[in-house]
Amino acid sequence: MNSNGSKVNIKRAIVVYLVLTVLALIWLYPIIIALTKSFTLEGFNNYKYVLTYKKINYFQVVFNSMTIAILTSLGVAVIVTLSGYAFSKMHFRGQKILFISVLVCLALPVAAVTMPIFFTLVKLKCIDTLLGVIIPLIAFNVPQMLLIVKNYFDGIPNELLESAKIDGSSSFNTYCVIMLPLAKPILASTMVLTFVYSWNDYLLPLLVIRSEINYTVTLAAQFFMASTYQSPLDVAHLYAAMILLTLPSIVIYLLSQKYFQAGITAGAVKG
Predict the structure, then answer these.
(1) Distance between CA atoms of 231 and 210, rounded to whole angstroms?
(2) What percent of the chain lies above the pLDDT cut of 70?
(3) I need a surface site. Which of 130, 144, 206, 243 has the fewest CB within 10 A?
């Protein structure tokens, strides 16, 4: 009986690994094609061309996107931990209605509110600034991340907070001393997700940014797409540009992957 059970488990494991291998190959195929195309004709000189391109400064656009993504991640982290703590562990009038109102924003696409966003940023004098991109990105990332963080906080025993309250700890002190240390895994996950979403966003930079010096990586790509089909070398330059423009976000994700996985695992156990 045990022998049959172990054989079944081995067969299941083989099937799972085969499926995962196929999915990995499907995911890796476009990356392999892009790498291959980026080295055609002139090899590493294609990457040198992108790094020294006169129309757009590669290091400047990477710095702009990195600034936007980091500040957005930090802003979202502060807001969702405070609000997640309030919605999960505190009780106040209109709590449910307010939380539902925030969640309703999940169904609101950015494209549907581009006009009010634009005129609001004009009033705030944030057009053609990185801050003009950061503020809307924080607003649109908060609802999703708040839901994740609140669900995590719901799994933290209330007895911990009650003990702190008995010892005379204030709500804010409890948040700093108890909730934040326990929230490190899920906080890391939300920051990684927010960073990736902010890095890849195209619509908001397109709406706000005007000067080339403030361009993000998603806007910089257009400089290499204008002449894509004029020669094979242009195609190679485009692929090299795409790889270089996405490389920083991939590196950041790989470096923070263990924290991201820890947060997802912790959230699954808590839930």
Answers:
(1) 29
(2) 91
(3) 206
